[in-house]
Amino acid sequence: MIFSLFIARRLSLSTDGRKSSPAIKVSVTAVALSIAVMLASVAVVTGFKREIRDKVIGFNSHITLYATPSADGDNNVVTLTPSLKSLIENEPYIISYSLGVSIPAILKTPDDFKGVYLRSLEGEHTTNFIDDNLEEGTIPDYSKPESKNDIVISSIAARQLGLKTGDKIDTYFISDDVRARRLTVAGIYNSHFDSYDQVIIYGALPLIQGIAGLSSNQGTSLQIQTDDFAEIDNYSIRLQKTLIDALANGTVYKYYKTENARIQGAGYFHWLSLLDTNVIVVLTLMAIVAIATLISGMLILILDKKRIIGVIRAIGAPTGKIRNIFIFLAMKVALTGMLAGNIIMLVLLWCQDRWHFMPLDPEAYYIDFVPVEISWQAVAALNAACLMLIYASLIIPSRFAAGISPADSMRTE
Asked: Most Cβ neighbours (<10 Å): which of 12, 101, 116, 397?
């Protein structure tokens, strides 16, 4: 067994024969609080990123495909031809796709009106997103003919127009002529993304295609989901190149433009990137607090154990061994604090993730609860980094123990 570790395991952390030292208690508490705050910071920011990313994707998609009008007056309609469909399906990173149609509309009540975009509620990812944010009513089953005129509106639109589920609303569509439909409010959603909620309502794809004069294989965009959101920039470039090559060899007859969620939600993602800076500051400050208190606790232990240091030095122990004894003692304090901090904070984070008992102001943060995401890889990396940093920071102050001579220690006693 290592000599330093053997001695450190048998030395008490108490001072003056007391059961526990106030300095050690402070050190343990400081380390526990520091690691708890670090874990909370990482989990909350990761949770925010997940929630905001999911909302941006929910209103859009990983990649959106648009048709660009040509010089001869061709329209911007995306036609899902067999060749385009085959091209999309041959891309290995694309896991699903669906036609999307969005047209401007005016919701009119006897007392008020509101301009919106009626968007097709198509594709599993969009349907699941609206379902997750549904406040009232249900998601219409558009496979049933009687649900064709059902729509889902935002809580903002419902509040402004005084609508509730089951109400009928006159809806006007203006293009070359004016078309009117009486639609039924089947559900009300609230994503807390006011910039989207203000203007987007959802309806059946066949209904919107009919109003816009489109066939069943046509839309204003193609919504594409990939297998990895982190790679959507590369996927967008890759898909764009494939489409350009297909246009050049005559496989498709239109120029298609790709746009990914990072571009569509650039403002939100920029805001999230600023949070990373805040996390770095918090982690740095908490690490300084933990290290400072541990060093103080180590120095107090060294002063209290001067007699033992003198005895060990007198029997010929080298200075390096003595230094290691107090590094091991300080690491024992650090591990105790880290264990307590991990257990307490991980339990709190799990409870928050399950029950959302800590609320937020959705007008400021786009979400009504504190989102958390527990990444075990991040937890392990954070703890490992803290251990290495603490160990490295204790090397210099441990020299104080090695500098105590046997004569000085016995003179003190």
From this structure: 101
- Please tell me what DSSP assigns to residue 358: S
CA distances from 231 to 111, 258, 276, 313, 378 (A): 48, 14, 20, 60, 20
Residues 356, 353: Cα–Cα separation, whole Å: 6
In degrees rounded to 5, what are phi and psi of residue 238?
-65, -45
**Spatial separation of the C-alpha atoms in residues 220 and 101, rounded to whole Å:** 5
Residue 221 is predicted with a pLDDT of: 94
Length of the chain counted residue by residue: 413
Q: Is 146 exposed, middle or buried (0-12, 13-18, 19+ CB in 10 A)?
A: exposed
**CA dist., res. 96 & res. 57, Å (int):** 14
> Please, which residues bridge with residue 115 across strands?
106
pTM: 0.84
Which letter, b or e, does each residue of 246-255 get, where b requires 16 or more Cβ atoms within 10 Å of its Cβ?
A: beeeeebebe
Q: Which of 51, 358, 375 minimizes the C-alpha distance to 191?
A: 51
- Per residue in 101-112, pLDDT (tens digit) is 999 999 999 989
